[in-house]
Give the backbone structure.
Amino acid sequence: MKKTAVSLLALLAAGPQPLLAQDIALDEIVVSANLGETEAGRTGATVEVVTADDLRSTGDLRFSDVLRRLPGVSVNTRGGMGSQTGIAIRGASQNYVGVLVDGIDVTDPTATQVAFDFGQLTTSDVSRVEVLKGSQSALYGSGAVGGVVTITTLRPTEEGTHQSVSAEIGSHRTAALSYGITHLSDNSEAALTLSHVETDGFSNASEADGNTEADGYELDRLSFHVARTLQNGVRIGLNGFTEKSESEYDPAYYMPSDTLGRVLTHDQWLNAVTPIGDGESYDEKLDRESVGLRAFAEFKTGAFSHTASASVFRSKRRYFENEVGYFTLDDNGTENDPTDDLYGTFTSLSDNRYEGRREKLDWRAAVAVADGELVFGADWQREDFDQSGTWGELSEDSSSTGLYGEFTRRIGDLDLALSLRRDDHSIFGTFDAARVALAYHVDEATILRAQFGNGYRAPSNFELFSFFGSQDLKPEQSRNIDIGVEHEFASGTSVRATAFYLEVDDLIDYNRDATGCPAAALYGPGCYAQVPGTSRRSGLELSGELALTDTLGLAAAYTYTDSATNAATTWASVPRHLVAVELTSDLTPTLHGRIGLTAAMDRPDDFGTPVESYSLVDATLTKGLGEGREAYLRVENLFDEEYELVPGYGTSGRAVFAGLRARF
């Protein structure tokens, strides 16, 4: 019997595969759990894996939709496609999550808290995803407190040259096109993907509050990978991407009230502003560009295997928006009364630019020692942050140098990984991180896993040097433990339970009290500050898969997250209860179907105020057309639920999408 770490229903192997059950064979290799490649059954860390087959089965276009179905992962989206989107892993928000695309760190050095915006990423060129959970600073350094998302783009899997095309149209006048080509021979491989997405979208400001103006999005992206093995055995390669997008958005501060306490909608705000240029209200717009490039070499010297790499990531963001204003109706007015006067409006257009750059060098070596393997190495990185425009001029940088090592060994039925890292930060000095990961095979069907580690997050350049920052900030320090058990029954049914605990000292949050904030008089109340005491997250993940019939399977996951913190915002908005259920079936030999439910309950907003729970149903039908061709139909929000992921921001009603895919 084939054992699985997070098993898929074995009887559904020929059909569409649910993302809640990742079909990871215990002998399959994962790349994110340790410094060296590791069999999935031999790591004490919890890793969720999404394969290319999983992605095809759902037909998801937005990458964030892939993540929201995974145990322990919650998603917050501020509107439609292209809008700001963050995730939390076991309650740790996106600024505690590292993100790598083909080995390139793509977290934005210009963000308020260095993080990746998942709203800008589609699945068009993605072939594999690994979500590593728990504190991983011993492996990845600053910021990897909650986990790491590792994304691999298109790779060749068959000898020769192969091409693929896909096209999708659907609700909100959405259209997506992509083309991919791969080549694989004895000593070389290459892959290239071109993709384009555009949509008219819907209002990012909630329509429930009277907003109707749609916010569109357009994205062009190219990604590539080439590698070649030379005659002397050295393998060299180059991979990278470039993308450019334009998106319309509604800022968070469109909530001015009149003296009667009535909140103005985004549309009312626009109508109140004196017309600009062509006589029409200006639409807030974000232009974004990003480029990533990584060169690497793999070689051997005696008993040592080496990997050396150099990477660079650049990001540019430019915001065009109406200057912020607070609008008040006169005391004698009533709603829609033409005698009411709005005052305090601005007619100027703000233009703010943010440019960031990250350069990184890394070398690591591996050698067999003491019946195990030792991996050790060093890295260096530098982050530049430049800001210009209405919010002022700012140019700062920071750098860090790291030394790291990891020893792995199998002792009987126990797999042990001990990881250590020391970072020397240009501003904050040294920090040491350690992790112990254990996997114990009770028998062929049962694995006990445990992981213990500490982590840290250095304040971002924005938190330190911007008008809302403070140079008195110091790094956050964290400790993490998770313990779990997995068991597979003879029937193909499997279950997994993992308890987790994370605590953070000196957590950095946005303090809305102006006391002690250097820029409060100029830009309004609030700044980034340390939260007193220790902030805690703890909870339980449960997941399982059940074979109902030879062609019908069920997968389900439940995550409970409890918070104990003095923070006002950063740790407040994670649901206490998350549920994901998915049913998959081979309806006919060529027709595959899936239907899924995701639900969030006991949800606080950024201020800790309860938010209405929601439950969403989506479904996909995939029809094989022969000769590598297939068609699919995807319905999102099947029952047209009215809900908000982030209070005040819009979500889509029922949406229908149809697509064609071909490989040749």
